[in-house]
Known about the structure:
Strand content: under 5%
Number of strands: 2
Shape: globular
Distance between the termini: 36 Å
Helix content: 40-55%
Structural class: mainly alpha
Strand order of the largest sheet: 1-2
Number of helices: 4
Amino acid sequence: MEPITAGLLVALASGTAGAAGQQIWASLRDLVTRRGTRPGEDEPAMTAEPPRTEERAAQLAALLNERARQDPDFATALETWRRRANAEVAARSGDVTNQITGGTQGTVIQGRDFHGDITFGGRSS
């Protein structure tokens, strides 16, 4: 699992992801609440709004990452959330994120905003 970063949390707070960012933040609150805590474990302070400072975001990211290290089920759910959040922030900021997984791949084109034909071996696709 890739760690949750303060930068991601701040991007959500800054409005980079727009209304979708608010929904993603709400889904993180729900994830933390739904998964509960173990005895003696601190609940990450989830507020209605994402953290607006790097310091607060870093604290929250550290709590989330520590909880993920201790709870494999939470780690899986948090990784799913992180991928969705990163994709939404990237989509809103103009970044392109391509991911290819699995076995042998055929021809792959990675990019964004293609206009016009793409030709392979003399044929347009």
